[in-house]
Amino acid sequence: MKVLVCDDSIINCQIIGAYLAEMGHKAIYADNGTQAVTLFEEQEPDLVLIDVEMPEMDGYEATRMMRQSFNDFSQWTPIIFVSSHIDDASIVKGIEAGGDDYLTKPVSQAVLRAKIHAMRRLVNMRQNLIDFGNQLREVNDKLMMSNQLLSELSLKDPLTRLGNRRAFEESLVRASRSAIREEKAISLLMIDVDQFKSFNDTYGHQAGDCCLQQVAQVFKRGLHRATDFGARYGGEEFSIILPDTALSGALHVAQRLRQCVEALQIPNQKASNGIITISIGVATAEPSKEFSGELLVGAADSALYEAKQTGRNCIVGTKMEPLTPVSADKRPQYKMTRHLPTTTGSSSAH
């Protein structure tokens, strides 16, 4: 143990130093308060024995400065005042300055040994508390990481790594509210892999899973904005939310995705053109105050149905335009403007 002995009396330093050496401790010495503070900061002793009355700076002021230099609980060092005058007022003043105990001069070796033993016990208890606190922080950090991972997993489709149905519904609520607040358009793509059941029946479920993963990768690569959100809606059906996107931009995105899936050239012998394709229903709305994402899903789903009925591997777009005035039941009414199915067109980004 390294002990800082602060006393302007050489004899007192020698006596205390001899006691400490006999106990197996190393002493470093200061003969005034200023030197004591400097050595405390440079040497970082395990214990301080400091005289109350010293030149330049007394023990009380030196102790205050030592405590101010280390505010962290983990760096706490015991400080014991050494004085020939110990009364109630001196003890209170010493404790308020940052001291932990008192020794009476002349110092008794037995009492010094007992005081050091008591201070070491406190140091060990403090270290145990620090170690326990570190362990708690470690456990808490791991728990937070696990909770975050579980939260992320609960919103991910395990096969495609896109968002799942729950994530889609939560994202659609947020996007719809944002569209209402900012008075901007919002578009939704509902996508279905054409004749996927027959593909599964022909090539097996493992091939079907691989097919869905490849199609999902096209969607991931095809969404260029952080606000765009893709999800597996269920089975072979996918959905993509495009905030702040007009119908023309949404159709561009849909066309690009349709072409990219077609370019995968995944064989499907039951399909009319011999490969996996997708059909897409696009719905766009400029929300009224009563707007809800459910209306957008219904419109996009209706457009998707029409695309599949038209012959698959195509896109049908729907623009939802609110009627005015709002009906008496306070629910907004919309008229649908259909856009013809598209099998070719621009592949530019929105």
From TrEMBL:
Source domain of life: Bacteria
A Gene Ontology BP annotation from the UniProt entry: cell adhesion involved in single-species biofilm formation
Ranges of compositional bias, category Polar residues: 340-350
Catalyzed chemical reaction(s): 2 GTP = 3',3'-c-di-GMP + 2 diphosphate
Extent of the signal sequence: none
Gene3D superfamilies per UniProt: 3.30.70.270, 3.40.50.2300
Pfam family, one: GGDEF
Domain Response regulatory per the UniProt entry, residue ranges: 2-120
Enzyme Commission code(s) on record: 2.7.7.65
Enzyme class, first EC level, given as a word: transferase
Disordered: annotated segments: 324-350
NCBIfam families assigned: GGDEF
Descriptive protein name: diguanylate cyclase
Native source species: Candidatus Berkiella aquae
Taxonomic lineage of the native organism: Bacteria, Pseudomonadati, Pseudomonadota, Gammaproteobacteria, Candidatus Berkiellales
